């Protein structure tokens, strides 16, 4: 079992970096026989996609070659697909990032909210997953992914665009988002975690169409205040939806935003740490990209995971929690 933590902040020492370190340490402490690596966009050189579509072509040679015993050997679904034969013409650290994504049995994304979406550096990395779009990897069994959303709080527009962006990009790379954890307002600027995360319900794929709220029409202002009435301005299938939204959002401007969703409290206790079968802890893996750390142990039959929502104990485990 190998886990990859993708840290999507351009800051190397902010809130999300502190959480990524905590999750990294939790993986080591609770699953010492599993591998774990962390990739941070703050210390990787990943340029934006230029839309050339050169990655559509299938090359004769795979993008990576691996030596026997390499801790970053591709995951089974990746090997069985043609994902390793779709190259990107841009030569930067994304080649190393792809190694980590390809070896992941489980992906953990830690990302801050920038205007309801992802930071520019994270968006560049996600856009560079385009080569996977032309492969058959997305037709194979998906690997699980979890999104940890971090922020200081205060944006009334939430972070559903962030979820949609990450969810869409990861899907073509062979992952499916199964859980979103909301850390917004729960981590101080110095990295101290002040409260447990809350589970955030996954928005429906397809947006308003999936909710049956896609039938609407715009109407002209008749001079009698119609344009100020959200029900008159946008004829939703459910008038109550529009009225409730207008009452809860003072900045309502006739746009089609979704009704705020209730958040579910995570009340399950953290998983108990596994007992290591040997006295040796995980070692850093070869082939780790700049801004990444890696370790890999034998694949166990179980699939234990880190304790999400774990409070900050300021422990650094085996010392691997520090940033580069």
Describe the structure.
The radius of gyration is 22 Å and the shape is globular. The chain has two domains: 2-203 and 261-293, Rossmann fold, CATH 3.40.50; 208-248, no CATH class. Helix 1 links the parallel strand 1 (2-7) and strand 2 (35-40). The chain is α/β, with parallel strands linked by helices. The chain is built from nine helices and eight strands. Helices cover 23% and strands 13% of the residues. An eight-stranded mixed β-sheet has the order 7-6-5-4-3-1-2-8, sandwiched between helices. The chain starts with a strand and ends in a 31-residue tail after the last strand. The chain has helices at residues 15-30, 76-80, 94-103, 120-127, 130-133, 160-172, 208-211, 230-233, 239-248; strands spanning 2-7, 35-40, 106-112, 143-150, 175-182, 198-199, 264-265, 292-293. The longest helix is centred in the first third of the chain and has 16 residues, at 15-30.
Largest sheet: 8 strands, mixed
Question: Helicity, in percent?
Answer: 10-25%
- Give the ordered list of helices and strands: EHEHHEHHEHEEHHHEE
Number of domains: 2
Shape: globular
Note the topology.
Blueprint: E1 2-7, H1 15-30, E2 35-40, H2 76-80, H3 94-103, E3 106-112, H4 120-127, H5 130-133, E4 143-150, H6 160-172, E5 175-182, E6 198-199, H7 208-211, H8 230-233, H9 239-248, E7 264-265, E8 292-293
Parallel strand pairs: 1-2, 1-3, 3-4, 4-5
Antiparallel strand pairs: 2-8, 5-6, 6-7
In short:
The chain is an alpha/beta fold and 324 residues long. 23% of the residues lie in helices and 13% in strands.
């Amino acid at each position: 079992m190998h886990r990859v933590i993708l840290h999507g902040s351009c800051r190397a020492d902010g809130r999300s970096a502190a959480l990524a370190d905590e999750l990294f340490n939790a993986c080591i402490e609770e699953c010492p026989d599993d591998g774990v690596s962390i990739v941070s966009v703050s210390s990787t050189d990943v340029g934006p996609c230029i839309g050339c579509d050169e990655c559509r072509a299938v090359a004769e040679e795979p993008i990576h070659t691996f030596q026997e015993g390499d801790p970053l050997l591709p995951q089974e679904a990746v090997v069985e697909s043609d994902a390793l034969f779709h190259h990107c013409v841009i030569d930067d650290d994304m080649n190393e990032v792809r190694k980590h994504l390809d070896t992941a049995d489980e992906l953990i994304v830690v990302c801050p909210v920038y205007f309801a979406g992802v930071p520019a550096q994270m968006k560049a990395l996600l856009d560079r997953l385009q080569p996977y779009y032309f492969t058959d990897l997305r037709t194979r069994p998906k690997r699980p992914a979890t999104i940890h959303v971090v922020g200081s709080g205060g944006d009334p527009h939430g972070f559903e665009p962030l979820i949609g962006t990450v969810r869409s990009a990861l899907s073509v790379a062979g992952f499916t988002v199964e859980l979103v954890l909301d850390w917004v307002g729960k981590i101080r600027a110095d990295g101290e975690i002040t409260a447990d995360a809350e589970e955030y319900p996954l928005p429906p794929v397809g947006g308003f169409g999936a909710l049956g709220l896609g039938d609407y029409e715009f109407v002209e202002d008749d001079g009698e205040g119609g344009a100020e009435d959200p029900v008159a301005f946008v004829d939703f299938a459910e008038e109550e939806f529009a009225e409730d939204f207008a009452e809860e959002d003072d900045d309502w401007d006739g746009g089609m935003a979704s009704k705020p969703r209730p958040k579910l409290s995570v009340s399950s206790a953290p998983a108990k740490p596994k007992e290591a079968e040997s006295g040796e802890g995980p070692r850093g893996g070869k082939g780790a990209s700049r801004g990444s750390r890696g370790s890999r142990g034998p694949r166990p039959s179980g699939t234990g995971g880190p304790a999400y929502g774990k409070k900050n104990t300021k422990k650094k485990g085996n010392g691997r929690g520090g940033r580069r």
